[in-house]
Design goal:
Two copies of one chain form a homodimer.
Chain A lengths: L2 H14 L6 E3 L6 E17 L10 H19 L5 E8 L4 H18 L2 E9 L3 E9 L15 E5 L4 H10 L7 H11 L11 H4 E6 L4 H12 L2 E5 L7 H6 L4 H7 L6 E5 L1 H13 L4 E8 L4 E4 L21
Parallel strand pairs in A: 3-4, 8-11
Antiparallel strand pairs in A: 1-2, 2-5, 3-5, 6-9, 6-10, 7-9, 8-10
Helix pairs in contact in A: 2-3, 4-5
Chain lengths: 321, 321
Amino acid sequence: MSRGEFDIIRDYFRRRAGQREDLLLGIGDDGAVVKAAGELAWVVDTINSGVHFPEDAPAHVVGHRVLAVNLSDMVAMGADPRWALLALTLPVAEEAWLDDFCDGFFRLAGEAGCVLAGGDLTRGPLAATVTLLGPLHGRAVTRAGARVGDDILVSGTLGDARAGLDIALGDGAPADGAEAFLLNRYLYPAPRLALAPLLPRYAHAALDLSDGLCADLSHMLEASGVGAELSLAELPLSEALAAHAPEEARRLALAGGDDYEIVCAVDPGQREAFMAAAAAAGVSLTRIGRVTDDKELRVLDEAGEPEPLPGSFRHFGDHDA
Amino acid sequence: MSRGEFDIIRDYFRRRAGQREDLLLGIGDDGAVVKAAGELAWVVDTINSGVHFPEDAPAHVVGHRVLAVNLSDMVAMGADPRWALLALTLPVAEEAWLDDFCDGFFRLAGEAGCVLAGGDLTRGPLAATVTLLGPLHGRAVTRAGARVGDDILVSGTLGDARAGLDIALGDGAPADGAEAFLLNRYLYPAPRLALAPLLPRYAHAALDLSDGLCADLSHMLEASGVGAELSLAELPLSEALAAHAPEEARRLALAGGDDYEIVCAVDPGQREAFMAAAAAAGVSLTRIGRVTDDKELRVLDEAGEPEPLPGSFRHFGDHDA
């Protein structure tokens, strides 16, 4: 695309970028300038067409998703996502596509109180990278702080997005309300923004679920030098998933990716207060197990017998790998 | 690529990432945590295979380049590039390629005093995005501060990279020392790190040259609401370029991209002091013209006649657009 087209796009983003007093220099120079003090969390995530979203995904899905996956990382750190940079790679510049992309991006940015401080536009295969920066709400919540005896909590419900992905990979047309719910859970992951200020107060360790509960929780256990025992019966399932895939629901909850829920380790004495504070902020938390000292991840079925652990489900793109 | 491969790559980067006291949490969690105070410059740039570098470019060229283009933006802002995040998209994970990429990336990171604080690894068409963050050396140097009567200075020499690109697009084998120099100037852009602390003291406005002198300088003039008159005879040319392309050299200097030199507007009374300070830090600066009040960019030939302005040369990838 030509330089003139780039200028048009840049002006377009600038009009919608938003403002904050602590953004001293925004879109249009060699870089942005922000005013900050103290400890800042900083994340970056890329999503690629045909890998992290279907090649025919609507542009607002792409715009929403690239911001959502980064916001989810900031939440898991216990950070306030104040400022964003967007690096967008496009094969062609189509105004309707960009308009739609911006609708998805800026709607979520508005919810998160996040302004677009700058970015980069390049030509190439469709891909989007966002980097977010912002202050911690308190101490940094890492993967490494889980303690033996902690309760393991998870937000929302699990497995929905993986079921939604299958619907998206089919004809993409939901057959009923349950399928519509699941498809929406895949297409529009909702970062648990309300948990960001609560995690530093209540959680010893946290991370967000992108690759599936077992896969991601393993990272926390490894970083913390501990193990865990999960209860299959306690995994929170949506009514839609239970109705859509009654046989598979628990397996999807254990191993399905793209949920972008938060899993965390919490002192049992703090659990009730945390769950009440989260509920007051609109997020349900469920206790799904506890941290153990044997450095293994076990899942127990309703009879208390160990359930064989499923292999990590793969991302969309790995289907054609 | 599999999760196991990703873990290997992550460990590999972690070993070479470097450390700073103000990097509180580095590679391996949901995000990085840095300790900062005051005004921070923040940049992001993506480079795509076949667009910003040839598809067959050696991996260390890619690793060097993605960091160099971002460092150049930080220099132009007058900022200290302390911390980096890298989002790397690879079609396959090849250890030899990654090793070579890291050689290019970390050699330059070491020169710049920059540590890798984290990143993201994804599967997809080869592309690399870097975001850099760091404190300003003083005030932010923007594109908008040029004043009528300012001298326009440029670092190094112009046009070399564009001539080097043609060599790279040919058989890539330099025929002589001049061609080897030019090819190297294209493959390994050298951000003018030494200018970062000097620009806030001496320059009213600055930017780095990625798209060519005329194209990029126009952005500064527009942002500053001024014009400029450049002297064709004053454009700094390398001996190699003058020998390799005597007829074309000045046109390449005006319009060739990928130089990553710094152009800036400086009060004439400060010019000598700035040039001396830059020379002491190893960077040559050349006065190539002055800022005017007529909001146009003019280039005068040796007889003082206006030279027709060349269209902006295009990036590598635009050749096959």
